[in-house]
Design goal:
Elements lengths: L10 H19 L3 H9 L7 H21 L4
Helix pairs in contact: 1-3, 2-3
């Protein structure tokens, strides 16, 4: 699997891009990202390249969302 690095101008732009990728996974597998990640974290899903990518995107989504919701000082 080849790594790709994409840079965005803002965290909001990154969040939108990750959200679109999550939507594609959800449509393809007919499961919400939250449900998928819960099962994946419990070892109930295989470690296919597709699922690893989905898990990474979900983890990135959560981190971006928390960062955007955190009050700025």
């Amino acid at each position: 699997m080849q790594k790709h690095r994409i840079e965005y101008d803002s965290p909001v732009e990154a969040l939108v891009a990750v959200s679109k990728r999550l939507s594609a996974f959800e449509a393809r597998h007919r499961m919400s990202s939250e449900d998928f990640f819960d099962q994946y974290a419990k070892g109930q899903m295989e470690d296919s390249a597709d699922f690893v990518g989905w898990a990474n995107d979900y983890h990135h989504f959560v981190a971006l969302k928390l960062d955007l919701e955190r009050p700025k000082q």
